[in-house]
Amino acid sequence: MRYPLDPHSHARPTEIAVRHLDLDVTVDFDARRLTGRATFTLDRTTPGSGTLVLDSWDLEIRAVTDADGTALASALGDHDPVLGRALTIEVGAVDTVVVDYSTGDDARALQWLEPAQTTGERFLFTQSQPILARSWIPCQDTPSVRHAYHATVRVPPELLAVMSAENPTERSEDGVYSFAMPQPVPSYLIALAVGELEFRALGDRTGIYAEPAVIDAAAWEFADTERMMQAAERLYGPYRWGRYDLLVLPPSFPYGGMENPRLTFVTPTVLAGDRSLVTLIAHELAHSWSGNLVTNATWNDLWLNEGFTVYFETRIDEELYGPDFAAMLLRLGRQDLEIELPSLDDRDSWLETDLADPDDGAVSVPYEKGSLFLRLLEQAVGRARFDAFLADYFDRFAFRSIDTAGFLAHLRTELLAPAGVSDDDLAMEAWIHGPGIPPNAPEFPSDAFDRVDRQASALLAGTPAADLDVVGWVPQQWVHFLRALPFDVPHPRLAELDRTFGLTRLGNIEVVAAWLEIAIDSGYVWSAPEVDDALAGFLGRYGRALFLRRLFARLAATPQGLERAREIYAGVRPGYHPVSRAAIDRILVAD
């Protein structure tokens, strides 16, 4: 196994790598602490190596021994503000290491929810990506190291525990649960959630976990999950993880979804009541191939994960809902990229990055620019040839990690050279190590969006909102419509839109967010108290970092908005997951 140097980990897997993890964890809701024992089975990748290095963040290390209980010499290094502390263990010739530990107050992967944040009384969930697993498990916290794991988790008996593993569907009387993940996974895909959960089957291989108050709505919303799996397998080969289940988390979950193997974590913000946002499930399912099966070797190679997944997601959507729908998604994705690029340094818009902190990679570039590059490859060689290449790629590199240089070498050998396509034909360097969107990026015509553009022009020309032809519009068209409005649109026109279509009160998070964005950018929010109230309510109700970043950044663009943003944030920050807090701190908190 080749282990590239990972700048975001203390681990030295080129010497000793973890081959298997046995985890025993007790969940203490009163103390808000996990107490655990991690038993590592080792693989000496360099013969004779006697030092194991693990990553840790704010962990209390209680003991380090071999399998017989004999103490091993160990030391915690100095704290690094990005990497945490290295746990260095002199293992000598032993092949098993046991670490007893507990989590600290700054366990950034964990969120312990207050009763007001959940429909039950207690809830805990983890978010390990990108390098937060080290805050709840001492581990080699790099995506280049993969291992299987077993876990025993002890929770209050009235709660159900689930992991990114083979899961129970009923509560245990004693609150003790055993889990197995037989396929090797990187540390960022180890996940745990504990709460008052119920399970509902969706298909032979699919199901959903949620709190009782949510389970019916969630089961209805995600009814297409089994069809999505079938479409994905038709495209790029068999699903290799056994089951594909979903867990709907409370609203503070910081992402739309997290592709934990066998158990995708999902935000409740996609429960729109009309199945209009279930493309998010297609995205997380696609990760079962791109990201989970074949993994980016470092976080500087994130585009190999997310760009492939956006491409794969839209192919699933095209299979199920048609090319016109997929074209709308691709157009919106490109809009996201174009909106964000002006705020980025040129270097930050390369596909292969050089991140000081992997959290800085949580931008649209690896997703949307990566997907555009794959669409360019498809155009250059033809869809049939490209599909065959991708299916072979997922099979050939299954359960392995790959970096950008390794992928490009494989791409040239297996796809481009046989097709007679050169780097220069693609402007390859401009894509991988160049800023912005290269001129040869694919375009995505959309009749549905052309109709929207005509209605936006009519509104700006004076047509009353009530006379606009919006019959049959889907949420993606409404988002495009709101983005098509200029920042100087007259406030009376925005008020008329809101009165006519109830934009402030809609239940679709993507449309409401687009409406709040134009209200902020135009300054309308300051003359419409009900919109300001809705903005504050939105920022307090949801913890999804994507929308929080967009809204807080827009507010922070003016002195009046910055003052209002800080006022709102002071009240809502304690309810955010550490991931979301860190993202908004970077926008609003002065150094």
TrEMBL record:
A single GO molecular-function term is:
metallopeptidase activity
Signal peptide start and end residues = none
Cross-referenced InterPro entries, in alphabetical order?
A: Aminopeptidase_N-like_N (IPR045357), Aminopeptidase_N-like_N_sf (IPR042097), ARM-type_fold (IPR016024), LTA4H_cat (IPR049980), M1_LTA-4_hydro/amino_C_sf (IPR038502), M1_LTA4H (IPR034015), Peptidase_M1 (IPR001930), Peptidase_M1_C (IPR015211)
Its keywords, alphabetically, are: Cytoplasm, Hydrolase, Metal-binding, Metalloprotease, Protease, Zinc
Q: Where is the Peptidase M1 leukotriene A4 hydrolase/aminopeptidase C-terminal domain?
A: 446-588
Cofactor: binding comment: Binds 1 zinc ion per subunit.
What chemistry does it catalyse, as a reaction equation?
Answer: Release of an N-terminal amino acid, Xaa-|-Yaa- from a peptide, amide or arylamide. Xaa is preferably Ala, but may be most amino acids including Pro (slow action). When a terminal hydrophobic residue is followed by a prolyl residue, the two may be released as an intact Xaa-Pro dipeptide
Binding residues annotated for Zn(2+), in chain numbering:
283, 287, 306
Give the GO cellular component terms, alphabetically.
Answer: cytoplasm
Q: Which cofactor does it need?
A: Zn(2+)
Enzyme class per UniProt: hydrolase
**Major localization class:** cytoplasm
EC number(s) recorded for this UniProt protein? 3.4.11.2
The residues responsible for catalysis, as annotated, are: 284, 367
Gene Ontology process terms (BP): proteolysis
| Compartments where found | Cytoplasm
- Protein family (similarity comment): Belongs to the peptidase M1 family.
In Swiss-Prot or TrEMBL terms, this protein is called Aminopeptidase N
Q: Which organism is it from?
A: Nocardioides immobilis
